[in-house]
Design a protein that fits this description.
The complex is a heterodimer of chains A (116) and B (118).
Chain A lengths: L3 E4 L2 E4 L5 E7 L5 E8 L3 E10 L2 E4 L6 E3 L9 E3 L8 E8 L11 E2 L3 E5 L1
Parallel strand pairs in A: 2-11
Antiparallel strand pairs in A: 1-3, 3-8, 4-5, 4-9, 5-6, 7-8, 9-10, 9-11
Chain B lengths: L2 E3 L4 E5 L4 E3 L2 E3 L5 E8 L6 E7 L6 E3 L2 E6 L4 E6 L8 E9 L10 E2 L3 E6 L1
Parallel strand pairs in B: 2-12
Antiparallel strand pairs in B: 1-4, 3-9, 5-6, 5-10, 7-8, 8-9, 10-11, 10-12
Classes of the chains: A mainly beta (116), B mainly beta (118).
Chain lengths: 116, 118
C-alpha cells in the first residue's frame, strides 16, 4: 500500500543531543514537508522540499535541518540549537507537477519527541 | 501573509446533534485552496476536503457539508447527526494555488477539538 512512514513513533532525547526523524514515502510525490504540532498551536511548517537536492525553510526552521538526497526520503534533524524540541512532528507529501495543481497533502502518523 | 482562524477551541455536543465548525481565513492571494483535515487520537491527519478559491459551491458528502463564502472569507464545516466516531481535532488549512504546479506547504488553524458524547 502507498503511504508515508515515519519512524520512530516515540523518541526520547537528552538535552544537547541531535536526533534525526525518519520520513519515507512510496507515493512518488515530488514535494515533502515537515510540520511541528504543539498542544493548542495547530501545525507549523518547519521545512519543505519540492524536488530532490533542494529544500526551503518554513516558518519555524531555526534549530532544525533537513536533507533530500532521494525522492522517497526527507529526514529531519532536530539539533541542540532547538530550544524547545518536545513536540509532535508530522511529515507530509504531495504531488508537484504542471499537470497536477497542488492537491491535498498526505500525512504520516507522526513522531512524538520528548526531551528528557 | 496567510492566516487561518478557528475560534472554537473545543465543542462538546450530544450524539445525533448537528455541529458546525467555523473557519475564517486571510490571504492576499487571488487564487488559493482551502482544506479540512481530521486528526483522530492516533495523530495522523486525515484529508476531508479541498476547495479552490473560484468554486464557491457548497459540498455535501454524507453527513458532512461545507459552506464556502468568499465574501466573508469563511469555510465552515457542518456534521449532521453527529456520531461518537466523529470525535477528533479538526483543522482548517489554506495554501497558495500555483497554475504551473507547485507546493510550499499549508497554513493551518489551531484546530477545534470536537467531543461527541453518547
Amino acid at each position: 500500500d502507498g503511504g508515508i512512514t515515519q519512524s520512530p513513533k516515540y523518541l526520547f532525547r537528552k538535552e544537547g543531543q541531535n536526533v534525526t526523524l525518519s520520513c519515507e514515502q512510496n507515493l512518488n510525490h515530488d514535494a515533502m514537508y515537515w510540520y511541528r504540532q504543539d498542544p493548542g498551536q495547530g501545525l507549523r511548517l518547519i521545512y519543505y522540499s519540492q524536488i530532490v537536492n533542494d529544500f526551503q525553510k518554513g516558518d519555524i526552521a531555526e534549530g532544525y535541518s533537513v536533507s533530500r538526497e532521494k525522492k522517497e526520503s526527507f529526514p529531519l534533524t532536530v539539533t541542540s540549537a532547538q530550544k524547545n524540541p518536545t513536540a509532535f512532528y508530522l511529515c507530509a507529501s504531495s504531488p508537484w507537477t504542471a499537470q497536477i495543481m497542488n492537491t491535498e497533502a498526505f500525512f504520516g502518523q507522526g513522531t512524538r519527541l520528548t526531551v528528557v | 501573509a496567510q492566516k487561518v482562524t478557528q475560534a472554537q477551541t473545543e465543542i462538546s455536543v450530544v450524539e445525533k446533534e448537528d455541529v458546525t465548525l467555523d473557519c475564517v481565513y486571510e490571504t492576499r492571494d487571488t487564487t488559493y485552496y482551502l482544506f479540512w483535515y481530521k486528526q483522530p487520537p492516533s495523530g495522523e491527519l486525515v484529508f476531508l476536503i479541498r476547495r479552490n478559491s473560484f468554486d464557491e459551491q457548497n459540498e455535501i458528502s454524507g453527513r458532512y457539508s461545507w459552506n464556502f463564502q468568499k465574501s466573508t472569507s469563511s469555510f465552515n464545516f457542518t456534521i449532521t447527526a453527529s456520531q461518537v466516531v466523529d470525535s477528533a481535532v479538526y483543522f482548517c488549512a489554506l495554501s497558495k494555488m500555483y497554475s504551473g504546479g507547485g507546493a510550499d506547504g499549508l497554513t493551518f488553524g489551531k484546530g477545534t477539538h470536537l467531543i461527541i458524547q453518547p
